[in-house]
Amino acid sequence: MTKTILAFYKFLHLQNPQKEKAKLAAFLEENSTVGTIILSNEGINGMCSLDTDKTEKVKSYLQKNFTVTKSDFKESTAHSNVFKKLSVKVKKEIVTLGLPKIDPTVIVGTYIEPEDWDSFISKREVVTIDTRNDFEVKLGTFEGSVNPQTVSFHEFSEWWKDKCKALKNKKIAMFCTGGIRCEKATSFLKTEGIEEVYHLKGGILNYFDKVGNSETSKWKGDCFVFDQRVTVNSHLEPGDHELCHACRSPLRLTDKNHEHYEKGVSCHKCFGTKTDKKISSLKERKKQIELLQDRRRKNER
Questions:
Q1: For the segment 184-198, what is each residue's pLDDT rounded down to a tens digit?
Q2: Of 3, 78, 87, nearest in space to 45 by CA
Q3: What predicted TM-score, i.e. pTM, was given to this entire model?
Q4: Which domains does the chain have, with CATH numbers?
Q5: Which residues are part of the catalytic machinery?
Q6: Is-contact 244 226, C-beta < 8 A?
Q7: Which residues of 169-225 form beta strands (DSSP E)?
Q8: 273 near 295, Cβ under 8 Å?
Q9: How far is the first Cα of the chain from the last one, in angstroms, to the nearest whole number?
């Protein structure tokens, strides 16, 4: 059965995230939905996969209980679930910037529709900033955009404070995977006194849905996603990447030919960084997975 993949977020003031967690988890389990959902006092952020015939019911619940609107959903399909299980968590922030006073429900940048994005960021006076992590940027980004080279979004504010003098008189355009990081980043820049701050509405996923790989597109490469697909291309189809089970780094298929690649144990990015104990544990895990797969194959005969 075809599966629907929903990505969504909403900044809103939740009084009791723990209470909402219990109700939401029960509802999603009842509707065979798997994925990762984060709740906090500042709102909801999630990605999940479910049977296509249950999509409208789940969307309706999220609209009713978390004021998620139709335009807040980024929707695509897959032949199977892209998550193994359901995880609903309560955290301090739905996306961690580390600045609790930043509130996108109060102040935020100006949205740019996906159809207008390429022409907007082509303007000389616009500086385009990719707010995602460094490894994500290296897999794909918009041509000419700035890479802050952050390991986590938590580092973005420090990067900005180091670069702000050179950028303070520019028009700033920001983007991320689904829109949540750049929305929070624009709110931060507005509180820093930057007047002209813009961001891609719905993020890269919405851009792929509305623009795809048009001849005028400034997008190059694949986009990292936080599920078993690892990356998607501009058609929202799974890209040709997989994760290293040892360090969780995305690998191109050609990376598997590297001398330091050992399935389930290491890749060229993490080779030599693990203790002997950790390597033994990874090899044992690999062995158990192979035994399980072998038993399944025999049972299917």
A1: 999 999 999 999 999
A2: 87
A3: 0.87
A4: 3-90 (3.30.70.100), 110-223 (3.40.250.10)
A5: 176
A6: no
A7: 171-175, 197-200, 219-221, 223-224
A8: no
A9: 23
